[in-house]
Amino acid sequence: MKPITLFPLEGIPLVRPGDDLVALLAEALARRGGPRTGDVLVVAQKIVSKAEGRFVRLSEVTPSPRALELAQITGKDPRLIEVILWDTAEVLRVRPGLIIVEHRLGFVCANAGVDRSNVAPEGEEIVLRLPEDPDRSARQIREGLARRFGVEVGVVIADSHGRAHRKGVIGVAIGVSGLPALEDWRGRRDLFGYVLQHTEVALGDLVASAATLLLGQAAEGIPAVLIRGLSFLPRESTARELVRARAYDLFR
Question: 201: which of 64, 95, 135, 183 fits an S-S bond (Cβ 3.0–4.6 Å)?
Answer without folding.
Answer: 183
